[in-house]
Design a protein that fits this description.
The protein contains ten helices and two strands. With 234 residues, it is mainly alpha-helical. The chain has one domain. It is flat. It starts with a helix and ends with a helix.
Length: 234
């Protein structure tokens, strides 16, 4: 079992401290191309989580059996197998969404974030830790996709949750929220350059939050030193 402290560290690394999209800046192709709506982002995000979790577990299970010079081709083969399984499942159950996502599902095979986790983490850790790392890294990547998709859909189309029926069925056809009536749209937001601006904003926002946290820690440390100095003086 994964210890609680280890669980917390792996979880925070995947979602915040070492987020593959905001910190490692990996997997930008789907981030920029597919995240034009919330539903598109959710579909690709779920596929990425499944591939990351599955490939991490498989790599961890065979980590002591693979010769070092063969590890990368074998990791790619494992990842490609999981991508193929996910692609076939999406084609069967979410066919319309599958057609929209198109080539970006098979391109998960070449996603540097997935190969990097297999090489840097799964190949050196136990199965429970590898599974947790895959889920959390995938979740961190998916959260960035969802935020980007929401921002671009709202600015570009004036809606949110458009075409929800593609993933959740016909009962969700009217689930779309129209935030701006008679909105003509903003083309730049739904094109890849718009994703560059949105992603840059998210990275800057994260850096600002981290900077404020560091400044707060420094202020607390100075206050503690001052209190200790006063206590010694008395």
């Amino acid at each position: 079992m994964v210890k609680e402290s280890s669980f917390k560290k792996i979880s925070l690394d995947g979602i915040w401290h070492n987020n593959p999209a905001l910190i490692q800046i990996l997997g930008l192709c789907p981030l920029l191309a597919v995240s034009s709506t919330f539903i598109n982002a959710l579909g690709l995000g779920l596929a990425t989580i499944l591939v990351l979790a599955g490939s991490n577990v498989a790599v961890s299970m065979i980590r002591n059996l693979v010769r070092s010079e063969l590890r990368i081709p074998i990791y790619v083969l494992i990842i490609a197998s999981f991508v193929t399984a996910v692609e076939l499942a999406m084609n069967a159950y979410w066919h319309e969404l599958y057609k929209i996502l198109g080539i970006f599902i098979p391109l998960i095979v070449t996603n540097c974030a997935i190969i990097a986790r297999a090489e840097s983490f799964a190949s050196k850790n136990t199965v429970p830790k590898a599974l947790l790392d895959g889920v959390m890294m995938g979740l961190g990547f998916t959260l960035v996709l969802l935020v980007l998709g929401s921002i671009r859909e709202i600015i570009g189309q004036g809606t949110l949750f458009a075409h929800a029926q593609l993933m959740f069925g016909e009962g969700f056809r009217d689930f779309q929220i129209t935030l701006i009536e008679d909105y003509r749209g903003f083309l730049l937001a739904v094109l890849p350059p718009g994703a560059f601006f949105a992603l840059g904003f998210l990275i800057a926002l994260k850096n600002l939050i981290e900077s404020k946290k560091q400044n707060t820690k420094k202020e607390l440390a100075r206050d503690l030193v001052d209190l200790n100095s006063e206590s010694v003086a008395k």
